[in-house]
Amino acid sequence: MREAPSTERPRSVTILGATGSIGRQTLNLVAEDPAQYRIEALTAFKRVDELASLALEHRPKIAVIGDDALLPDLRERLAGSGIAAAAGRNAIIEAAARPAEWVMAGIVGAAGLEPTMAAVQRGAMVAFANKECLVCAGDLLLAAVAESRAILLPVDSEHNAIFQATRGARAADIESVVLTASGGPFRLQTLDDMARVTPQQAMAHPVWSMGPKISIDSATLMNKGLEIIEAHYLFGMQESAIEVLVHPQSIIHSLVRFRDGSMLAQLGEPDMRIPIAYALGWPRRIRTSAHRLDLVEVGRLEFEAPDLTRFPSLSICRRALRIKDGAPTILNAANEVAVAAFLDGRIGFLEICLTVENTMDAISNRTLDSLDDVLAMNEEARCRADEEVQRLERRV
Ligand code: NAD
Ligand code: MG
Q1: What is the pLDDT of residues 103-129, one digit of tens each?
Q2: How far apart are CA 272 and CA 262, in angstroms?
Protein backbone atom coordinates (compact mmCIF):
# COMPACT_ATOMS: atom_id res chain seq x y z
CA MET A 1 0.00 0.00 0.00
CA ARG A 2 1.24 3.53 -0.83
CA GLU A 3 2.29 5.27 2.42
CA ALA A 4 0.59 8.64 2.23
CA PRO A 5 -2.40 8.98 -0.05
CA SER A 6 -3.09 12.60 -0.85
CA THR A 7 -5.60 14.37 1.32
CA GLU A 8 -5.72 17.33 -1.03
CA ARG A 9 -9.11 18.78 -1.77
CA PRO A 10 -10.94 18.96 -4.02
CA ARG A 11 -10.41 15.25 -4.63
CA SER A 12 -10.79 14.25 -8.28
CA VAL A 13 -13.22 11.40 -8.63
CA THR A 14 -14.39 9.04 -11.40
CA ILE A 15 -17.47 6.88 -10.96
CA LEU A 16 -17.75 3.73 -13.07
CA GLY A 17 -21.37 2.61 -12.97
CA ALA A 18 -22.72 6.04 -11.98
CA THR A 19 -26.38 5.17 -12.64
CA GLY A 20 -26.33 2.09 -10.38
CA SER A 21 -27.22 1.74 -6.73
CA ILE A 22 -23.58 2.17 -5.61
CA GLY A 23 -22.85 4.91 -8.18
CA ARG A 24 -25.85 7.00 -7.15
CA GLN A 25 -25.11 6.67 -3.46
CA THR A 26 -21.54 7.79 -4.14
CA LEU A 27 -22.87 10.85 -5.97
CA ASN A 28 -25.27 11.52 -3.07
CA LEU A 29 -22.27 11.74 -0.76
CA VAL A 30 -20.49 14.04 -3.21
CA ALA A 31 -23.58 16.26 -3.25
CA GLU A 32 -23.47 16.53 0.56
CA ASP A 33 -20.17 18.45 0.30
CA PRO A 34 -19.56 19.33 -3.38
CA ALA A 35 -16.64 21.70 -2.77
CA GLN A 36 -14.55 18.70 -1.69
CA TYR A 37 -14.76 16.94 -5.07
CA ARG A 38 -14.19 17.48 -8.77
CA ILE A 39 -15.73 14.85 -11.02
CA GLU A 40 -13.49 13.61 -13.81
CA ALA A 41 -15.73 11.02 -15.49
CA LEU A 42 -19.10 9.31 -15.07
CA THR A 43 -19.97 6.08 -16.91
CA ALA A 44 -23.11 3.98 -17.42
CA PHE A 45 -24.23 1.16 -19.67
CA LYS A 46 -27.64 1.87 -21.21
CA ARG A 47 -29.53 4.39 -19.09
CA VAL A 48 -28.57 7.40 -21.16
CA ASP A 49 -31.18 9.80 -19.76
CA GLU A 50 -30.11 9.11 -16.21
CA LEU A 51 -26.45 9.44 -17.12
CA ALA A 52 -27.10 12.78 -18.82
CA SER A 53 -29.06 14.11 -15.81
CA LEU A 54 -26.32 13.04 -13.41
CA ALA A 55 -23.71 14.64 -15.68
CA LEU A 56 -25.60 17.94 -15.86
CA GLU A 57 -25.90 17.94 -12.07
CA HIS A 58 -22.32 16.91 -11.19
CA ARG A 59 -20.41 18.44 -14.14
CA PRO A 60 -17.83 15.73 -15.00
CA LYS A 61 -15.30 16.46 -17.75
CA ILE A 62 -16.68 13.48 -19.67
CA ALA A 63 -19.74 11.21 -19.58
CA VAL A 64 -19.47 7.77 -21.20
CA ILE A 65 -22.25 5.41 -22.18
CA GLY A 66 -21.43 1.73 -22.80
CA ASP A 67 -23.91 1.18 -25.60
CA ASP A 68 -22.50 2.80 -28.81
CA ALA A 69 -25.97 3.25 -30.29
CA LEU A 70 -26.82 5.74 -27.53
CA LEU A 71 -24.01 8.20 -28.30
CA PRO A 72 -26.21 10.55 -30.40
CA ASP A 73 -28.73 10.73 -27.52
CA LEU A 74 -25.99 11.48 -25.01
CA ARG A 75 -24.47 14.16 -27.27
CA GLU A 76 -27.84 15.78 -27.73
CA ARG A 77 -28.59 15.81 -24.01
CA LEU A 78 -25.18 17.31 -23.19
CA ALA A 79 -25.06 19.81 -26.10
CA GLY A 80 -23.80 23.22 -24.99
CA SER A 81 -22.88 21.97 -21.49
CA GLY A 82 -19.12 21.73 -22.15
CA ILE A 83 -19.21 18.10 -20.96
CA ALA A 84 -17.60 15.70 -23.45
CA ALA A 85 -19.54 12.59 -24.48
CA ALA A 86 -18.20 9.20 -25.56
CA ALA A 87 -19.51 5.66 -26.00
CA GLY A 88 -18.46 2.02 -26.10
CA ARG A 89 -16.54 -0.46 -24.02
CA ASN A 90 -13.15 1.05 -24.89
CA ALA A 91 -14.36 4.52 -24.01
CA ILE A 92 -15.28 3.26 -20.53
CA ILE A 93 -11.79 1.76 -20.15
CA GLU A 94 -10.29 5.09 -21.30
CA ALA A 95 -12.48 6.94 -18.79
CA ALA A 96 -11.07 4.76 -16.01
CA ALA A 97 -7.55 5.54 -17.22
CA ARG A 98 -8.09 9.33 -16.97
CA PRO A 99 -6.16 10.89 -14.10
CA ALA A 100 -8.72 10.89 -11.29
CA GLU A 101 -7.18 10.36 -7.88
CA TRP A 102 -10.11 8.20 -6.69
CA VAL A 103 -12.23 5.77 -8.73
CA MET A 104 -15.43 4.03 -7.70
CA ALA A 105 -15.48 0.58 -9.33
CA GLY A 106 -19.27 0.40 -9.30
CA ILE A 107 -19.99 -1.60 -12.46
CA VAL A 108 -21.78 -4.89 -11.84
CA GLY A 109 -20.24 -8.18 -13.01
CA ALA A 110 -17.16 -9.19 -14.97
CA ALA A 111 -18.00 -6.35 -17.39
CA GLY A 112 -16.23 -4.11 -14.87
CA LEU A 113 -12.95 -5.98 -15.04
CA GLU A 114 -11.14 -4.08 -17.79
CA PRO A 115 -12.09 -0.57 -16.58
CA THR A 116 -11.24 -1.48 -12.99
CA MET A 117 -7.90 -2.89 -14.13
CA ALA A 118 -7.20 0.34 -16.03
CA ALA A 119 -7.73 2.36 -12.83
CA VAL A 120 -5.56 -0.04 -10.82
CA GLN A 121 -2.75 -0.03 -13.41
CA ARG A 122 -2.32 3.73 -13.19
CA GLY A 123 -2.04 3.58 -9.39
CA ALA A 124 -5.35 5.21 -8.43
CA MET A 125 -7.19 4.83 -5.16
CA VAL A 126 -9.83 2.32 -6.21
CA ALA A 127 -12.99 1.95 -4.17
CA PHE A 128 -13.92 -1.67 -4.78
CA ALA A 129 -17.63 -2.37 -4.95
CA ASN A 130 -17.43 -4.62 -8.03
CA LYS A 131 -16.70 -7.90 -6.21
CA GLU A 132 -17.07 -9.99 -9.39
CA CYS A 133 -13.81 -8.43 -10.67
CA LEU A 134 -11.86 -9.76 -7.69
CA VAL A 135 -13.60 -13.12 -7.93
CA CYS A 136 -12.76 -13.64 -11.58
CA ALA A 137 -9.29 -12.07 -11.69
CA GLY A 138 -8.13 -11.63 -8.08
CA ASP A 139 -4.53 -12.72 -8.58
CA LEU A 140 -4.05 -10.50 -11.64
CA LEU A 141 -5.62 -7.49 -9.93
CA LEU A 142 -3.42 -7.93 -6.85
CA ALA A 143 -0.32 -8.26 -9.04
CA ALA A 144 -1.29 -5.02 -10.80
CA VAL A 145 -1.85 -3.32 -7.42
CA ALA A 146 1.60 -4.42 -6.26
CA GLU A 147 3.17 -3.02 -9.42
CA SER A 148 1.33 0.29 -9.63
CA ARG A 149 1.00 0.84 -5.86
CA ALA A 150 -2.70 1.48 -6.29
CA ILE A 151 -4.76 1.55 -3.10
CA LEU A 152 -7.69 -0.85 -2.84
CA LEU A 153 -10.46 0.43 -0.62
CA PRO A 154 -13.07 -2.24 0.20
CA VAL A 155 -16.63 -0.94 -0.22
CA ASP A 156 -18.69 -4.09 0.24
CA SER A 157 -20.12 -3.51 3.74
CA GLU A 158 -18.60 -6.70 5.20
CA HIS A 159 -15.15 -6.07 3.77
CA ASN A 160 -15.30 -2.43 4.70
CA ALA A 161 -16.13 -3.51 8.27
CA ILE A 162 -13.10 -5.83 8.32
CA PHE A 163 -10.96 -3.08 6.78
CA GLN A 164 -12.02 -0.77 9.62
CA ALA A 165 -11.61 -3.40 12.35
CA THR A 166 -8.10 -4.37 11.18
CA ARG A 167 -6.76 -0.84 10.73
CA GLY A 168 -3.36 -0.82 12.41
CA ALA A 169 -3.45 -4.56 13.19
CA ARG A 170 -0.55 -6.93 12.49
CA ALA A 171 -1.52 -9.65 10.02
CA ALA A 172 -0.04 -12.29 12.34
CA ASP A 173 -2.50 -11.29 15.09
CA ILE A 174 -5.59 -11.98 12.96
CA GLU A 175 -6.97 -15.48 13.41
CA SER A 176 -10.04 -15.31 11.18
CA VAL A 177 -12.65 -12.98 9.74
CA VAL A 178 -16.39 -13.46 10.18
CA LEU A 179 -18.60 -12.27 7.33
CA THR A 180 -22.14 -11.54 8.46
CA ALA A 181 -25.10 -12.28 6.16
CA SER A 182 -28.68 -11.12 6.56
CA GLY A 183 -29.84 -14.50 5.25
CA GLY A 184 -31.86 -12.87 2.46
CA PRO A 185 -35.62 -13.08 1.86
CA PHE A 186 -35.78 -16.91 2.01
CA ARG A 187 -33.93 -17.49 5.26
CA LEU A 188 -36.94 -19.20 6.84
CA GLN A 189 -38.45 -20.87 3.75
CA THR A 190 -38.41 -24.57 2.89
CA LEU A 191 -36.72 -25.91 -0.23
CA ASP A 192 -40.19 -26.60 -1.69
CA ASP A 193 -41.18 -22.96 -1.21
CA MET A 194 -37.87 -21.80 -2.64
CA ALA A 195 -38.40 -23.87 -5.80
CA ARG A 196 -41.43 -21.70 -6.63
CA VAL A 197 -40.29 -18.17 -5.76
CA THR A 198 -40.63 -15.44 -8.40
CA PRO A 199 -37.98 -12.89 -9.38
CA GLN A 200 -40.07 -10.19 -7.62
CA GLN A 201 -40.02 -12.14 -4.35
CA ALA A 202 -36.31 -12.83 -4.70
CA MET A 203 -35.59 -9.13 -5.38
CA ALA A 204 -37.37 -8.01 -2.19
CA HIS A 205 -34.39 -8.01 0.15
CA PRO A 206 -35.46 -7.66 3.80
CA VAL A 207 -32.77 -5.11 4.73
CA TRP A 208 -30.78 -3.65 1.83
CA SER A 209 -31.96 -1.89 -1.33
CA MET A 210 -29.55 -2.83 -4.13
CA GLY A 211 -29.23 -3.49 -7.86
CA PRO A 212 -31.02 -6.54 -9.33
CA LYS A 213 -28.04 -8.90 -9.68
CA ILE A 214 -26.73 -8.54 -6.13
CA SER A 215 -30.31 -8.78 -4.80
CA ILE A 216 -30.69 -12.23 -6.39
CA ASP A 217 -27.18 -13.18 -5.23
CA SER A 218 -28.24 -12.25 -1.70
CA ALA A 219 -31.32 -14.47 -1.95
CA THR A 220 -29.24 -17.53 -3.04
CA LEU A 221 -26.43 -16.53 -0.60
CA MET A 222 -24.14 -16.66 -3.67
CA ASN A 223 -23.35 -13.08 -2.68
CA LYS A 224 -21.86 -14.34 0.59
CA GLY A 225 -19.97 -17.04 -1.29
CA LEU A 226 -18.52 -14.44 -3.68
CA GLU A 227 -17.65 -12.38 -0.60
CA ILE A 228 -15.65 -15.31 0.85
CA ILE A 229 -13.52 -15.20 -2.32
CA GLU A 230 -13.40 -11.39 -2.15
CA ALA A 231 -12.17 -11.58 1.47
CA HIS A 232 -9.48 -14.04 0.48
CA TYR A 233 -8.05 -11.53 -1.99
CA LEU A 234 -8.56 -8.35 -0.01
CA PHE A 235 -7.19 -9.61 3.29
CA GLY A 236 -4.97 -12.53 2.29
CA MET A 237 -7.06 -14.95 4.40
CA GLN A 238 -7.16 -18.68 3.71
CA GLU A 239 -10.57 -20.16 2.90
CA SER A 240 -10.65 -21.97 6.27
CA ALA A 241 -10.14 -18.66 8.12
CA ILE A 242 -13.19 -16.99 6.57
CA GLU A 243 -16.35 -17.72 8.54
CA VAL A 244 -19.96 -16.88 7.65
CA LEU A 245 -22.53 -15.95 10.29
CA VAL A 246 -26.19 -15.23 9.60
CA HIS A 247 -27.29 -12.05 11.39
CA PRO A 248 -30.76 -11.02 10.19
CA GLN A 249 -30.69 -7.44 11.54
CA SER A 250 -27.58 -6.51 9.48
CA ILE A 251 -26.30 -4.16 12.17
CA ILE A 252 -22.94 -5.86 12.70
CA HIS A 253 -21.37 -5.68 9.25
CA SER A 254 -18.59 -8.20 10.00
CA LEU A 255 -16.11 -9.18 12.69
CA VAL A 256 -12.47 -10.06 13.12
CA ARG A 257 -11.08 -12.65 15.55
CA PHE A 258 -7.63 -11.91 16.99
CA ARG A 259 -5.27 -14.46 18.44
CA ASP A 260 -5.77 -13.31 22.02
CA GLY A 261 -9.48 -14.25 21.83
CA SER A 262 -10.73 -10.69 21.18
CA MET A 263 -13.28 -9.98 18.48
CA LEU A 264 -13.75 -6.55 16.89
CA ALA A 265 -16.85 -5.63 14.92
CA GLN A 266 -18.07 -2.62 12.97
CA LEU A 267 -21.70 -1.63 13.53
CA GLY A 268 -23.97 0.77 11.70
CA GLU A 269 -27.33 1.20 10.05
CA PRO A 270 -27.60 -0.95 6.91
CA ASP A 271 -26.83 2.01 4.65
CA MET A 272 -24.19 1.66 1.92
CA ARG A 273 -23.39 5.37 2.18
CA ILE A 274 -21.42 4.58 5.36
CA PRO A 275 -18.87 2.18 3.80
CA ILE A 276 -18.77 4.27 0.61
CA ALA A 277 -18.00 7.36 2.71
CA TYR A 278 -15.18 5.51 4.49
CA ALA A 279 -13.61 4.87 1.07
CA LEU A 280 -14.44 8.31 -0.36
CA GLY A 281 -12.80 10.16 2.51
CA TRP A 282 -9.87 7.76 2.99
CA PRO A 283 -7.63 8.15 4.93
CA ARG A 284 -9.95 10.56 6.78
CA ARG A 285 -13.53 9.98 7.84
CA ILE A 286 -16.13 12.28 6.33
CA ARG A 287 -19.50 13.28 7.75
CA THR A 288 -22.60 11.62 6.33
CA SER A 289 -26.29 12.20 6.92
CA ALA A 290 -26.84 8.44 7.42
CA HIS A 291 -29.30 7.64 10.18
CA ARG A 292 -27.49 7.17 13.52
CA LEU A 293 -27.72 3.70 14.97
CA ASP A 294 -29.95 3.45 18.05
CA LEU A 295 -29.17 0.14 19.73
CA VAL A 296 -32.02 0.52 22.21
CA GLU A 297 -34.41 0.80 19.28
CA VAL A 298 -32.75 -2.22 17.61
CA GLY A 299 -33.08 -4.07 20.93
CA ARG A 300 -31.89 -7.47 19.84
CA LEU A 301 -29.09 -8.81 17.65
CA GLU A 302 -29.53 -12.42 16.51
CA PHE A 303 -27.09 -14.90 15.02
CA GLU A 304 -27.36 -18.34 13.46
CA ALA A 305 -25.26 -20.68 11.34
CA PRO A 306 -26.00 -20.66 7.59
CA ASP A 307 -28.01 -23.62 6.26
CA LEU A 308 -25.66 -25.24 3.76
CA THR A 309 -28.33 -27.59 2.41
CA ARG A 310 -30.82 -24.95 1.36
CA PHE A 311 -28.03 -22.60 0.30
CA PRO A 312 -25.44 -24.72 -1.56
CA SER A 313 -23.80 -21.61 -3.02
CA LEU A 314 -21.58 -21.21 0.05
CA SER A 315 -20.02 -24.65 -0.43
CA ILE A 316 -19.73 -24.12 -4.20
CA CYS A 317 -17.77 -20.90 -3.65
CA ARG A 318 -15.55 -22.47 -0.99
CA ARG A 319 -14.77 -25.29 -3.42
CA ALA A 320 -13.90 -22.81 -6.21
CA LEU A 321 -11.61 -20.93 -3.85
CA ARG A 322 -9.80 -24.09 -2.79
CA ILE A 323 -9.34 -25.16 -6.43
CA LYS A 324 -8.36 -21.63 -7.56
CA ASP A 325 -6.88 -21.07 -11.06
CA GLY A 326 -9.87 -20.54 -13.36
CA ALA A 327 -12.49 -22.06 -11.03
CA PRO A 328 -13.68 -18.76 -9.49
CA THR A 329 -13.85 -17.23 -13.00
CA ILE A 330 -16.07 -20.08 -14.21
CA LEU A 331 -18.22 -19.84 -11.09
CA ASN A 332 -18.73 -16.11 -11.50
CA ALA A 333 -19.53 -16.27 -15.22
CA ALA A 334 -22.01 -19.13 -14.75
CA ASN A 335 -23.69 -17.27 -11.90
CA GLU A 336 -24.08 -14.10 -13.99
CA VAL A 337 -25.75 -16.11 -16.77
CA ALA A 338 -27.95 -18.05 -14.34
CA VAL A 339 -29.11 -14.93 -12.47
CA ALA A 340 -30.02 -13.22 -15.75
CA ALA A 341 -31.92 -16.37 -16.85
CA PHE A 342 -33.82 -16.47 -13.55
CA LEU A 343 -34.70 -12.76 -13.83
CA ASP A 344 -35.97 -13.45 -17.38
CA GLY A 345 -38.19 -16.25 -16.07
CA ARG A 346 -36.23 -18.92 -17.96
CA ILE A 347 -35.15 -21.04 -14.97
CA GLY A 348 -36.32 -21.51 -11.39
CA PHE A 349 -34.64 -20.12 -8.30
CA LEU A 350 -32.98 -23.38 -7.22
CA GLU A 351 -31.68 -23.87 -10.76
CA ILE A 352 -29.36 -20.89 -10.37
CA CYS A 353 -26.97 -22.90 -8.19
CA LEU A 354 -27.54 -26.02 -10.26
CA THR A 355 -26.45 -24.13 -13.40
CA VAL A 356 -23.33 -22.90 -11.63
CA GLU A 357 -22.39 -26.35 -10.33
CA ASN A 358 -22.99 -28.08 -13.66
CA THR A 359 -20.99 -25.44 -15.53
CA MET A 360 -18.08 -25.81 -13.11
CA ASP A 361 -18.17 -29.58 -13.58
CA ALA A 362 -18.31 -29.30 -17.38
CA ILE A 363 -15.28 -27.07 -17.94
CA SER A 364 -11.72 -28.18 -17.35
CA ASN A 365 -9.91 -25.82 -15.08
CA ARG A 366 -6.71 -24.13 -16.19
CA THR A 367 -4.31 -21.47 -14.97
CA LEU A 368 -5.13 -17.93 -16.10
CA ASP A 369 -1.98 -15.89 -16.65
CA SER A 370 -3.31 -12.76 -18.29
CA LEU A 371 -6.40 -10.61 -18.58
CA ASP A 372 -7.00 -12.14 -22.02
CA ASP A 373 -6.95 -15.62 -20.43
CA VAL A 374 -9.55 -14.48 -17.89
CA LEU A 375 -11.76 -12.90 -20.54
CA ALA A 376 -11.55 -16.07 -22.68
CA MET A 377 -12.43 -18.29 -19.72
CA ASN A 378 -15.27 -15.94 -18.80
CA GLU A 379 -16.68 -16.19 -22.34
CA GLU A 380 -16.30 -19.97 -22.46
CA ALA A 381 -18.07 -20.38 -19.11
CA ARG A 382 -20.86 -18.00 -20.16
CA CYS A 383 -21.50 -20.08 -23.31
CA ARG A 384 -21.45 -23.34 -21.35
CA ALA A 385 -23.80 -21.90 -18.70
CA ASP A 386 -26.15 -20.72 -21.42
CA GLU A 387 -26.29 -24.25 -22.83
CA GLU A 388 -27.09 -25.48 -19.33
CA VAL A 389 -29.91 -22.93 -19.05
CA GLN A 390 -31.32 -24.10 -22.41
CA ARG A 391 -31.18 -27.72 -21.21
CA LEU A 392 -33.06 -26.80 -18.03
CA GLU A 393 -35.63 -24.81 -20.04
CA ARG A 394 -36.35 -27.79 -22.29
CA ARG A 395 -36.93 -29.95 -19.22
CA VAL A 396 -39.83 -27.74 -18.04
P1 NAD B 1 -26.63 -1.78 -10.38
O2 NAD B 1 -27.20 -2.81 -11.29
O3 NAD B 1 -27.55 -0.94 -9.59
O4 NAD B 1 -25.66 -0.81 -11.21
C5 NAD B 1 -24.69 -1.32 -12.08
C6 NAD B 1 -23.98 -0.21 -12.82
O7 NAD B 1 -23.09 -0.84 -13.75
C8 NAD B 1 -24.92 0.68 -13.65
O9 NAD B 1 -24.43 2.00 -13.63
C10 NAD B 1 -24.79 0.11 -15.05
O11 NAD B 1 -25.00 1.09 -16.05
C12 NAD B 1 -23.35 -0.37 -15.07
N13 NAD B 1 -23.17 -1.50 -15.99
C14 NAD B 1 -23.87 -2.66 -16.03
N15 NAD B 1 -23.43 -3.45 -17.02
C16 NAD B 1 -22.42 -2.79 -17.62
C17 NAD B 1 -21.58 -3.07 -18.74
N18 NAD B 1 -21.69 -4.22 -19.42
N19 NAD B 1 -20.67 -2.15 -19.09
C20 NAD B 1 -20.55 -0.99 -18.42
N21 NAD B 1 -21.32 -0.65 -17.36
C22 NAD B 1 -22.25 -1.55 -16.98
O23 NAD B 1 -25.61 -2.57 -9.40
P24 NAD B 1 -25.17 -2.18 -7.92
O25 NAD B 1 -26.12 -2.78 -6.95
O26 NAD B 1 -24.84 -0.72 -7.83
O27 NAD B 1 -23.83 -3.03 -7.77
C28 NAD B 1 -22.61 -2.63 -8.36
C29 NAD B 1 -21.49 -3.51 -7.79
O30 NAD B 1 -21.37 -3.23 -6.40
C31 NAD B 1 -21.77 -5.02 -7.89
O32 NAD B 1 -20.59 -5.69 -8.15
C33 NAD B 1 -22.29 -5.38 -6.50
O34 NAD B 1 -22.03 -6.71 -6.16
C35 NAD B 1 -21.51 -4.42 -5.63
N36 NAD B 1 -22.17 -4.10 -4.36
C37 NAD B 1 -23.36 -3.45 -4.38
C38 NAD B 1 -24.00 -3.15 -3.18
C39 NAD B 1 -25.31 -2.39 -3.16
O40 NAD B 1 -25.79 -2.08 -2.07
N41 NAD B 1 -25.92 -2.09 -4.28
C42 NAD B 1 -23.41 -3.53 -1.96
C43 NAD B 1 -22.19 -4.19 -2.00
C44 NAD B 1 -21.56 -4.46 -3.20
MG1 MG C 1 -21.82 -7.34 1.03
Answers
A1: 999 999 999 999 999 999 999 999 999
A2: 27
Alpha-carbon distance of 296 to 75, in angstroms, equals: 52
At residue 323, does pLDDT exceed 80?
yes
Closest CA to 347 of 192, 220, 196, 224: 196
In ligand 1, the atom with minimum distance to the C-alpha of 210 is: 41
Q: Is the pLDDT of residue 156 over 80?
A: yes
Counting from 1 in the atom list of ligand 1, the atom nearest the Cα of 23 is: 26
Nearest of 311, 308, 381, 393 to residue 347 by alpha carbon = 393
Ligand 1 pocket, 45 CB below 6 A? yes
Please state the φ and ψ torsions of residue 163, each to the nearest 5 degrees. Answer: -60, -45
Note the pLDDT tens digit of each residue in 52-98: 999 999 999 999 999 999 999 999 999 999 999 999 999 999 999 99
CA 157–ligand 2 middle distance (angstroms): 5
Phi, psi for residue 41 in degrees, rounded to 5? -145, 145
- Distance, in Å, from the CA atom of 357 to the CA atom of 6, rounded to the nearest integer, reads 44
Residue closest to 164 by CA, chosen among 251, 230, 256, 246: 256
- Sort residue 104 into left (φ over 0), alpha (ψ -120 to 50) or beta: beta
Greater pLDDT, 209 or 170: 170
Tell me the per-residue pLDDT of 265-310, one tens digit each, with 9 for 90 and over.
999 999 999 999 999 999 999 999 999 999 999 999 999 999 999 9
CA-closest residue to ligand 1 atom 18: 111
Radius of gyration of the chain (CA): 20
Burial class (CB in 10 A: 0-12, 13-18, 19+), 115: buried
